[in-house]
Specification:
heterodimer, A: mainly alpha, 4-stranded parallel sheet, 8 strands, B: mainly alpha, elongated
Chain lengths: ~600, ~120
């Protein structure tokens, strides 16, 4: 058996890491419940495991999602993660070919060049040597990019990089030292004993000019082993815990474990890459508490109420996260964790009678503050010949979302029950809302057996059914995606199609999933007016970069917040449609015909009388 | 300011005689004002109460703020108990009072300091 004392630090680190990961895994498994184990056993030997393996390969090794954000950034992460795995796998294959025995010790493959220095010829030995050198070069290039990024983050497409804690900086230092040390140790070995391919062989040849090179040989291998061991010890307590946690997360996710029981794993699966920071709506207002820092505080157990509250719930971080962590849910969970501070009184449900109608229109709280949108909707409904009535003008109705966002589930449920009863009493078949916040709530927290639509969807339907006719104009529109409609519900194309039938829709830099937050979000209780305004001004500047005639949105909150910065330019999609609608289409036309006929009749009668 | 204000020039500076009204405020009121300074901008126009979703349940932000200014925090708190945080009052406020935050801080105060 091949052994040298210097492998001990590496082995100690390795054993420590393995035991911590196993301990954490057992703790996570312990927090699961009966149906989770049922799902795991059901899907363990099914195609889901293969799908998980594919996802691990695509996301954890190749980093497909990071490639989508920026090619150079993706390349850096891929060369590190995939390169390291290849180094381990091909190194193991090399030793297997050399010894013909797969059960050689773990350290034997890692320190192969130490135990077997010099050039050996065995089956494919040259190919192995070349591959090992090529992979090492790939990792070193990735490392150089990572180091450059640490000081010049914009070079790899990130405006801001995470500011790391001290523990992370230590772990970062060790991971930076691993591969240069390996490169040096292998080069010195090649310089002394020969062997090595184009990289280590060449450098070794150069180093062999140094007198007494043999003194460096043993210390360098010791240093390599020490650094590896130290990194493994630091790994479970630093951001590099994401390496095992992400793999475990992907597996459990594919095996159908419920999302809210994966929270503990999700918190540890954050790699603190900082990709979420650039998209964060809090950045223009210069506020702290971005997703990466929020998760770090959570993991370190010093989460403050302010950090939990500093979030507009726009969902941008969730969309950008390469690991796919459910950040919005985690943030709401943290708020719940701080306990109920709102003692909202139960509202009386018994007195609700409501109105009777086919289509019920619920503008929402803030929606009622923009009467022009409501009037436009009513007019469009009368043009389309639909019996639509507004709900809740006199009743104290709220969808319950603001309470839910502040972490008050029970109080929110009281509101839900009340509104649900009012809707059921109306006997409507369709519920329309002009507020994406309410829409999101109706879809996810209500048990309504009727059709729930957002008003832009209904307008789209009326236009395609030719119930209302719109005229094409030369107007140029920019559509602002409300976060609760776009990112939360994948509702991107319909409003654009509606606008496309009336004019030209211009594309902007921040569209669809990358849409900016208007600052009007109800999710943040501590945001000051100045910070809110800053967020709105930034969003408006980006939206009007190409000088559109109108900035159109489909949310009363977005409309109000954006309007505060530039009046007259921001409109709701219903207002624009109403403006462009051709009057007397359909029902109004019928009314007019009836009216003319009756007039003619009476005129005839008058003539007959005469 | 200290009463003893003798200088080396041999004369005395006049003692500050201004009555500091805000020192009469309850510490909770000061705490609220520090947490959300826009609270002091209120002119009691009543736009907030006029648009309130829960007006029927007796919620009036205007009245609550007046109560807070008089130090009647408990009464203000009881008045705002039915608030649903819809944020309409913040949108309509002509003076830019961050109403939701005032209410939020009021609740927080109540939670931290159960005695009030």
């Amino acid at each position: 058996m091949q052994f040298n004392w210097f492998v001990l630090p590496f082995m100690a680190g390795m054993v420590f890491l393995m035991s911590v990961v196993v301990y954490k895994l057992i703790r996570w498994l312990y927090s699961f419940e009966g149906d989770d184990f049922h799902h795991i056993m059901k899907y363990l030997f099914s195609s889901r495991t293969l799908m998980a393996a594919k996802e691990i390969f695509m996301e954890s090794l190749l980093h497909r999602k990071i490639f989508k954000i920026n090619f150079k950034l993706g390349w850096m992460h891929m060369s590190f993660a995939f390169g390291w795995l290849l180094l381990i796998v091909i190194g193991k294959l090399e030793t297997l070919t050399f010894t013909g025995d797969f059960t050689n010790p773990v350290w034997y493959a890692i320190f192969f060049r130490f135990f077997e220095p010099g050039a050996h010829s065995f089956f494919l030995s040259d190919v192995y040597a070349f591959l090992m050198d090529a992979i090492l070069l790939m990792i070193l290039v990735g490392l150089a990019m990572a180091m450059y990024k640490r000081f010049q983050s914009f070079s790899l497409g990130l405006k801001r990089a995470t500011s790391h804690s001290l523990g992370d900086k230590w772990a970062l230092t060790f991971i930076w030292m691993i591969f240069p040390l390996r490169f040096l140790a292998e080069s010195v070995t090649a310089g002394l004993y020969g062997g090595g391919s184009f990289l280590t062989g060449g450098t070794g040849f150069l180093l062999s000019e140094i007198p007494h090179l043999q003194y460096l040989f043993y210390p360098l291998w010791w240093a390599y082993s020490l650094v590896l061991g130290a990194f493994f010890v630091f790994l479970p307590f630093s951001r590099y815990m994401h390496i095992p946690a992400e793999v475990i997360l992907i597996l459990f996710r594919n095996w159908g474990v419920k999302t809210d029981r994966l929270k503990a794993i999700e918190v540890e699966a954050c790699s603190r890459c900082g990709i979420c920071i650039d998209g964060c709506a809090m950045v223009p207002a210069n506020r702290k508490g971005q997703a990466v820092y929020f998760l770090r505080q959570w993991r370190e157990g010093n989460l403050t109420l302010d950090t939990a509250q500093n979030c507009l719930q726009c969902g941008s971080c969730q969309e950008r996260c390469p690991v796919g962590i459910h950040l919005n849910d985690l943030r709401l969970d943290a708020r719940k964790g701080f306990g109920n501070i709102l003692p909202v009184k139960a509202s009386d449900v018994s007195d609700i009678e409501g109105i009777k109608t086919d289509v019920i229109y619920f503008p929402g709280c803030v929606g009622r503050l923009s009467p022009s949108v409501n009037q436009s909707m009513m007019r469009l409904a009368s043009l389309a010949g639909v019996n639509m009535n507004q709900l809740g003008n006199e009743l104290e109705l709220c969808c319950g979302r603001p309470l839910l966002l502040s972490g008050h589930v029970e109080e929110a449920n009281l509101q839900v029950a009340k509104l649900e009863k009012a809707i059921k009493n109306s006997g409507a078949k369709t519920l329309v809302t002009s507020c994406p916040v309410c829409y999101n709530m109706f879809l996810k927290n209500y048990h309504l057996k009727i059709r729930v639509v957002h008003h832009s969807e209904l307008i789209h339907q009326w236009i395609t059914e030719r119930r209302i006719k719109v005229q094409a104009s030369g107007k140029r529109f920019v559509y602002h995606d409300p976060c609760e409609l776009g990112r939360a519900n994948g509702f991107f194309e319909m409003p654009r199609e509606v606008l496309g039938s009336m004019g030209l829709v211009i594309q902007t830099a921040h569209e669809k999933e990358a849409s900016l937050c208007c600052g009007g979000s109800l999710a943040d209780f501590t945001l000051t007016n100045a910070e809110r305004n800053e967020t709105a001004v930034y969003a408006m500047d980006e939206l009007t970069a190409k000088h559109p005639d109108y900035v159109v949105t489909a949310c009363p909150m977005c409309k109000k917040s954006l309007k505060e910065t530039q009046k007259g330019m921001v409109k709701d999609i219903a207002e624009v449609t109403c403006e462009m609608a051709i009057p007397y289409a359909h029902s109004e036309q019928l009314h007019l015909q009836k009216f003319i006929k009756s007039k003619l009749k009476s005129a005839d009668e008058e003539i007959a009388v005469m | 300011m200290s009463n003893e204000f003798k200088t080396k020039f041999g004369f005395e500076l006049m003692r500050q005689r201004e009555v500091n009204l805000s020192s009469a405020d309850a510490p909770e009121v000061i705490q609220l004002q520090v947490a959300e300074p826009s609270m002091t901008h209120c002119i009691s126009c009543g736009s907030c109460a006029g648009t309130c979703t829960r007006a029927g349940s007796g919620v009036s932000f205007r009245k609550a703020l007046l109560l807070i200014r008089r130090g009647l925090i408990n009464e203000a708190y009881e008045m705002m108990e039915s608030c649903v945080f819809c944020g309409k009052c913040r949108f309509v406020c002509p003076r830019g009072v961050n109403t939701r935050r005032v209410i939020y801080e009021l609740y927080r105060l109540k939670k931290i300091n159960h005695a009030i």
